[in-house]
Amino acid sequence: MRKKRGWKWSILVAGVVALIVSPLYFIAIGGFMSTEEIFYKPPYFFPPRPSFQYYREAFVTLLPYLKNSFIIAFGTLLLTLAIALPAPFVLTKFRFPAKGLWSFLFAFVQMLPYAAVVIPLFLMFTRLRLINSYSGVILALSVFLVPFAVIILRSYMVAVPSGLIEAALIDGAGYFKIFTSIFLPLSAPGIASVAILVFLLAWGNFIVPLAFIKEESMRPVSIGLYVFIGQYGVQWNKLMAGSMIYTIPPLVVALLAGKSIVAGLTAGAFKE
Description:
- It is globular and about 75 Å long.
- Strand 1 and strand 2 form a beta hairpin.
- 28% of the residues are buried.
- It starts with a helix and ends in a 5-residue tail after the last helix.
- The protein has one domain: Orthogonal Bundle (MetI-like fold).
- The chain is mostly helical.
- It is built from 13 helices and two strands, in the order H-H-H-H-H-H-H-H-H-H-H-H-E-E-H.
């Protein structure tokens, strides 16, 4: 009976995986085919005459945009961690006025849609002359990602026993030493998970760079793919090839660190 149920679940999971992976597969092989082959009916499941030309041309075209995406993603990651690492430590282990209000604000900002915050931020950043700059996009993305990181990291730091702080204080350690020597090592799985997720979210964001960057030379790949969509048509093979190139960095991160992300997100729930 259990074996039959196991087979049913296996078939169901295989069907869901196939449903998710099949569009990605057709996009991948579309980058090897001409436009006529892409729209051929019935569709090809394998490229009849595969050519690397479209991938090569798409990569050369998107190379400047890839550089911009890495600058924005890593800049956002560094700024988010710089703010989000000490914030949950203060929220969980210190008492100060309006502590509950700050926790509520982090959760509230996290629930807001991007579209509701982008316009006010754009008006503020225009006055601060941060439009058309990497720093402006990085700051804007961090507004959304810092609350996300704080909420996840808080579950780790709140689980660290207060007795460790008291013992360290008795031994003469300061709060900075306690934070760097006790809290950061104990929260390492959560920090790794947050770092990976922040990078992926910053890499894949479209709305914020579109609103804050007008210079074509500074735009990331999420916007740069539009170079293959012209007034008189779409270069489907190059667009598909470019889309696959765009997904390679997050795909590699997901494949290499998928287990770490799951372990990091669940480990904090079992700490005593």
